[in-house]
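User: Structure with arginine, tokens only please.
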Amino acid sequence: MAKENVLNVYSEIGRLKKVLLHRPGKEIENLTPDLMDRLLFDDIPYLEVARQEHDAFADILRNNGVEVVYLEDLAAEAIADDKIKNQFVDEFIKEASIQSEKKRELVKEYLLSFSTNREMVDKMMEGIRKEEIKDYKKTSLADMIESDYPFIVDPMPNLYFTRDPFATIGGGVSLNHMRTVTRNRETLFAKYIFNYHPEYKDANVPLWYDRTEDTAIEGGDELILSDKVIAIGVSERTDGASVEKLAKKIFEKDEKFEVVLAFDIPKKRAFMHLDTVFTMVDYDKFTIHPEIEGPLTVYSIRKGENPKDVIIEKETMELKNILEKYLEIDNVTLIRCGGGNMIDAGREQWNDGSNTLAIAPGEVVVYSRNHVTNKLLEEHGIKLHIMPSSELSRGRGGPRCMSMPLVRENLR
Ligand SMILES: NC(=[NH2+])NCCC[C@H](N)C(=O)O
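Assistant:
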């Protein structure tokens, strides 16, 4: 029997009931200066403190009635069956770009040697250093003459940004194809969770996107403005083609969404995802990076006559007017990160000052370090839950990026 409402997200702000996090693990201690660029970090966080901050984040959520589940637990629970575990390990190895056959065999043996699935999953996330598997060098020429690259399997340090590899939209999931190899490897965990975890496997969770697609889309670009309107950033990470594919899939099912808005935003790191420049904090309030106020080009995608067709319209408008028009609200307030002061805006933007996680309308989790923006939010009547932020922020993501809502209460 199909279970109902295992996933339910029809807004950005409806009371948060269940959320997916990943507690930063030893993958952070496998970040090196040489790897930072490719693995999308600007600095190396101090793991112990990052974990304290992350635990404080989870506590804020739990203390406010949110059920917190962890990616690493769900992934381990999803592969309880040995056949599925074996398949999962094979797929993981296939995507880990390991050069020689012998080395792949040894990695498999090593992963299967962990006594619990949870430990094995942690190891997959952490990456495997050369010295962990000693014998491979003797067996193949490729391995004998290989470079001094220190890893057999790369770490996945971005996993604590659970927002991106997949995203709940309505009653389904966008299982994303990520722009970069490092982040695309992360999506494998979600594939197994939605196919095999006891909570989800019989729920027939519809997939609005699949990781096997060849164009990119990331969860940080996917915002659910209401049960009628979805906004998606066409950004450094998300292609226009992906937005159209996703819109068609959603319209084919009887979801209530009526329009998908594709926001054309600058393709640069400070604007990485739409949620880096713009998050919803209340019914009629948004916190934004002043640079996207516009005029902005937006493409609205609606259902066509026949379910496979869509109608696309291009508009160029100020952000405020776009939101007022599509959300049918008379007056939308945009709260500028850093209060519009160029220095404060630039600094706080860089540390995700407008990347807030709403846990209810008018109630958000924010980073402590962005005090200029936080003060402004308070002045606009927003209730803040402030979390510590010196280490986690070094990965260039804030409270919204670090959380994937699974269930939100519907708004009245
Ligand atoms: N939804 C977000 N804004 N996520 C931020 C992700 C940051 C991560 N270092 C990356 O570059 O992918």
